[in-house]
Amino acid sequence: MPSTAEIVARCQTLFEDLDFKEARAWKAAAPGRKVVGFMPVYVPLELIHAAGCLPLGLFGGGDRMEVIHGDAYYQSYICRIPRSTIELGVTGRLDFVDGMIFPFVCDVIRNLSGMWKLMFPNVWSKFFDTPQNFDPEIGGRYYVEELRELRDGLAALTEREVTDEAIRASIVLYNENRRLVREVYAFRARFPWKAPNSEVYLLMRGGLMMDVAEHNAMLADYLAAAEAEDRPKRDNVRIAVYGSFCEQPPLNLIKSIEMAGCYVVEDDYSLVNRFITADIPVEGDPLEALSLAYLRSSVETSCKYVPREEDKGRYHIEQVKKARAEGVVYATPSFCDPALLDRPMICRRLGEAGIPHISFKYAENSGQMQPIREQAGTFADSIKLWS
Amino acid sequence: MTEVVKEPSMLLQKEMIARNYDAITSKHESGRKVASTFVPGNLNELLLCFGIVNNLPEINAIQNGMRRLSGSYIMEAEKSGHSEDVCTYVKADIGMMGKGNIAPNGKPFPEPDVLLLSYTGCYTFMKWFELLREQYKCPTLMLHVPYEGDGHATHNMRDYIVRQLREVVIPGLEAASGVKFDIDRLREVLRNSAKAEDDLVWVLEQGKRTPSPIDAYFGGVYYIGPIFTAFRGTPEAVTYYEMLRQEIQARIDAGRGPVTPDGTSFDDQKYRLVVEGPPNWTSFREFWKMFYDEGAVVVASSYTKVGGMYDLGFRHDPDHPLESLADYCLGCYTNRNLPTRVDILAKYVEEFQADGLLINSIKSCNSFSAGQLMIMKEVERRTGKPGAFIETDLVDPRYFSAANVKNRLESYFQMIEQKRRGASKAA
Amino acid sequence: MRCFIGIDLGSTTTKAVVMDENQQVLGRGITNSRSNYDTAAKVSKQEALIDTRLTLFRRSLAAVPEVAGRVDHILSDLERNFRHVQFLEQLDDLERTCGENVRGPRFAGREKAVLEVLAEVFRRLREHSSSLFAAGARRKSDFFRDLAGSDFMHIGETVCRDAGLPFDLVLNVYDKSIIEVENRPPAGDMEGKFIRALEKGAMETSLIAKPVRDALAVPLEETYVVGTGYGRVRLPFPKEHIRSEILCHGLGAHMMYPGTRTVLDIGGQDTKGIQVDPAGIVENFQMNDRCAAGCGRYLGYIADEMNMGLHELGPLAMASTKQVRINSTCTVFAGAELRDRLALGEKREDILAGLHRAIILRAMSILSRAGGVKDQFTFTGGVAKNEAAVRELRKLIKENYGDVQINIDPDSIYTGALGGATFAVRAVVN
Q1: A127 and chain B in contact, CB less than 8 A
Q2: Is A307 in Cβ contact with B142 (below 8 Å)?
Q3: Which ranges carry the ATPase BadF/BadG/BcrA/BcrD type domain (chain C) (predicted)?
């Protein structure tokens, strides 16, 4: 059985490889294979998988890439993820990607979908607009049709039908993936010293670049290995990180928060594999099932409308309680409209619930960690002092 | 500051706006209900059916920007925890509430009875009304208008909107107003809309003439005023556009250009531009002056399409009332994908015989701004005409650098001039 | 003779170029822009006219067979002496101004002591100036402010100590006065000063006096002046005498290298990517957006942050063996990132190498925005003098655009003014 170090090392290799060698190898392994890239926050990966494609999570270029051409397309007041994504495209690093899905996050990613059409006319690219009306008869009917359109688009890309049977089989695998992901999160909430923030992060990011079945096995291995390994427990406070659902913080920042004395026991990093919070039924029409899961059992996040005012921030508070977090770090990318516009509302609700919180901004290529360490460290100290 | 010189249509519009503000602020006396909603995807016809007064926070922000109040409002909102990175319309609105919520007529804004969250072409709208809802705790009606990601509307999108209108918006407005929905009343109002829309399109088309009798950007914001706000579907709007049309016809007959705020007729037009993006409001006149001082007239713009793209043929249709409202929302400029925006702008450059595309990139507005540099490149490539890029903000005076903007504009105009001379020499 | 002058009012320095009607450059002049563009324009123009005189002397001396092979030496001697005369004149002005500024409550009762100290300081400054302008002496700067300033500091401190007077008091007078002196339009009578310089020199006066006087007798008529640069709108120039710096840089680069198709200019406040056609006409351009990240000023901040001189950054960065990746070209964040890296134990030269790369990456984006790089490519502006920046640029141009001829003129800082002067000729001659 592999050790946690081995598993994490493999994930880190995947995470750091901006040439996507593994995904390329997956594609080359059998004729006719297609790779479909997707961006944050949520895409029903089941459909991509059911179409026989590899869903490839594209979360920007991180802090490992110099951006030249990407910057040529964006003003200084726009976040970094679209720049580095364009850079990945322009420099040929995504030349093996056959399709791109841009889910609804914000206007920047929305517009990027059109830029992709102009820049890469040979790539099948799709803007995927999930409903903001959560009534099955209204938003649900619309969404089932959108899912059908997405499915048909994938079928056209692969030139084969995507059967309900195949979708159901994929749902089974992704149900298992979500169950294991939840288990890792629950394990970390119980033993945060045994599952450090950066390890869990890499485990999840790596998983979005490989076949789901492989990731399922890996998650199980990680759980077993992490449980078995003895690691020193530190006198850290327990916190949740929110606001980081799209452009990702650099790994150094993720590590810095922990080094500053904070165990992260809950987060919204690369949310896609936790977006749906319950098993999706395998019976009946699979598109209906995917739709209902989205409408009824999905997380609250800034790009989803909250129909009832009293429910705003409720999800965050419940999660904080469930994970027994003592405070929230609201960490958002600079210029991130969804997170920054949401911040005052979410923070107000956290305050009303008596949950201490701080907030700061980052970019995926932030280089200065000292201020972050100082803020997180001070926050940890203040929690210790007052608890 | 000297008084801006106004034409009769402008005076009429001013009166209409003042009346609407009075209707808003006197709701407690009149017993009328007030809704807040947005310019793109504005469902004014529906509100009229319920006798609800339409209050548009974007317009309030513009008013406050032009009256130089927005700067302090924005700072007020930032003090209360709003990021410096986000939309200044939102912050001007929130800050205004923090500073007494006073309408341009000097009276306090009453609380809205309903927030009509017509979620069309701009992500921020959703958060904006979540923020207002938190404040007012009033019913909020979400109308989700899907984005035309593939460059066209689908039946599914249209059905989804119509269903929301039927099941969410109309019942919600009935509940808010106590008025029963009457589809025939809606048809009647839509007929007025279409009439005014015809005249607006005629007006905007006149930019194709040389000299142009209109300025389709700075002047354009006045031309679109009534139709984009609380008056579409009203007889006053029909009258306004008839009057505007006559004014412009008179200028055409006299061979004159548009009237500048100085009251002069702008006839000596050296450069013809297509402009993409909203204007800056805090230095609106200064900004405009930078154009006409250099002899630049705007012959077409995308901003005059944010509240509907009537020039592409859409009209509100009394025979398909709800469907046409859905189509209207879907077709607003910022709900169209980037390739479509490139097509539209390139077509404007060609059909209006412009010297090029100028982009006024607005810091607040990612819906417009994200991707504009690519739009510029594409339009340049297709038309062979050079583009230019300037940056300002909607209502944040801190983000308007006059020297910077002027420098770029002059460089651009001089380049056009030099290229022309080069070309004529070669010829 | 008819002179055509281009003046480029940059945010940091103001440059002037004088041309004759055949588009031959006669002289160049540069000064710091101060906060007063009007004076800066006058000073730079005068400097360019001084340089023009030197060119005329050279032409004139070429006809004197006896001095063949020694013209360079004679001219540098003449210029050195001229500068000395000019320096002394400005020093007089500074002393007078200082004297006038010794007033107000903080000097109460000490006026006399301060005036005495000032008199002594200026006496020594004058005395020391001979060595400053001695043959072979190296001056750190050609700007009066820098020359007078550094001497004033150490001489002033010594004199004050000896007199038992706080140096602060005198420094305050100096600070106030230097700004006044600097912002005063330059004194005239350039010809007179050259005569004095001629007399002062150890040169074979008999041999060169006549040719120099003949050259001085040629009237320099300011036929047409074109202003450009960021400060151009503040000038009392009629509109038709103003050209945008984009047009001037494009044309200036074309004048220096007629094969130029793409120009990159990195100035203090902005970075420009310009495409020009074979006649030097601008086809397209892009400038940095509102954010001035990655402009020359950024290096200034870094130099301050590292407590180094601006011109020392490039050479130190060249000594780097392992480039550190700097992610922020934001002037605000760069300092923080720099301190972070230093705290992590990274070497200064490696960090600096990274910073230079960051600037050039930003410039590459602007070039990409402006339509890429075409052969030939001309790099201008203050940053073009920085070898570390140039090294990164060469690398990145090659990686992204292949083999492109890269032109860098040591006088590239005058590109805008050169374009302006060319426009001035065209306005009259064509």
Answers
A1: yes
A2: yes
A3: 5-424
